[in-house]
Amino acid sequence: MKPSPFNYFNANTIQKALNALSKNDNAKIIAGGQSLVPMMNFRLAQPDLLIDISDIHELTKIKDDNDYIEIGSLLTHSNAIKSSCLKNNFPIIQKAISHVAHHTIRNQGTVGGSIANADPASEWPLLVTLLECVIKVQNKTKTREISAENFFESHFVTNLKEDEIITSIKIPKIKRSYGWSFFEESQRDGDFAIVETGVIIEIEKNNLIKKANISIGGVDEKIIRLKNIENLLIGMNINENLCNFKKQDIIDNINPISDNHSSDEYKKHLSFVLTKKAINAAKKQIIYN
Ligand SMILES: Cc1cc2nc3c(=O)[nH]c(=O)nc-3n(C[C@H](O)[C@H](O)[C@H](O)COP(=O)(O)OP(=O)(O)OC[C@H]3O[C@@H](n4cnc5c(N)ncnc54)[C@H](O)[C@@H]3O)c2cc1C
């Protein structure tokens, strides 16, 4: 298939991109093109104008602040994997993003494109939800910051307005000692996850769990935080059996649907198995801060 005809504008500054976006009703930002181009080829997207932001160098940067790491929206999946700053602060990012597609796609695809696309089986949406990131967006006149919880609304739907672009993502640093893990199950390496889970467990000096974040993807219209299980863990000693919950406790909080790859029942089963596996793995992988 070929896309319908479109015009192309290479915006090499944020202001030029925002001006073009505000003046054209049926315009689309293109970053890595790894989701948008297939959608255009299938004519699921038919923009009149493509605004290419891939030459805006300032959107590729990683900034290390006292309280957070800020990553530019144009950071590619490959550069996220290679970044020593991200690896030192959030080793879970390297682990999870290594599951995104294959080298060629990872070299082009960007974090901003992935979260704007809001596929509920994608790795970046899971990470920004799990790590309680803040998404910075900008239109011609103002900037705003949106928590990950409020950013994702449904399958491929976000809180982003038509005249806004994502400029960066702020990832709060974890100051306590913590354990982390990420697992996903897919049909083949590089395929989208059938189910994916991420866990962060923060502990105090006495080994009691102060905070637990558990996210699961591929099983609902957006990434789900399993808050009932998180609350069960708070106050427990990290060395106790942390998986004293039932399958029903997970499936009450998710809504998987059957597709060509697997049934809803299989996804429910995987959700239970992967959540337990991820909690036990996080427990074994404490980083002392
Ligand atoms: C074969 C294949 C396999 C894949 N497998 C996986 C996988 O396993 N896991 C996974 O997570 N992804 C996968 N992907 C998708 C890939 O990760 C994409 O790179 C990513 O989803 C989109 O990033 P992009 O930069 O290419 O965005 P684009 O395709 O350029 O844009 C995607 C959407 O985001 C919008 N957009 C882009 N940047 C911005 C911005 N800064 N501000 C506002 N809107 C913006 C665009 O307008 C468009 O609507 C796969 C893709 C392919 C082709």
Outline the structure in words.
This protein is an alpha+beta fold and 289 residues long. The chain has twelve helices and 15 strands. The strands form four sheets. It has a five-stranded antiparallel beta sheet with strand order 4-5-10-6-7. Strands 14-13-12-11-15 form a five-stranded antiparallel beta sheet, sandwiched between helices. Strands 1-3-2 form a three-stranded parallel beta sheet, covered by helices on one side. It is globular, with a radius of gyration of 19 Å. Flavin-adenine dinucleotide (FAD) binds next to strand 2, helix 2, helix 6, helix 7 and helix 8.
**What's the count of strands?**
15
Which distinct ligands sit in these coordinates? flavin-adenine dinucleotide
The CATH topology annotation of the largest domain reads as Uridine Diphospho-n-acetylenolpyruvylglucosamine Reductase, domain 3
Can you list the strand order of the major beta sheet? 4-5-10-6-7
**Using only CA atoms, what is the Rg?**
19 Å
Class from secondary-structure proportions: alpha+beta
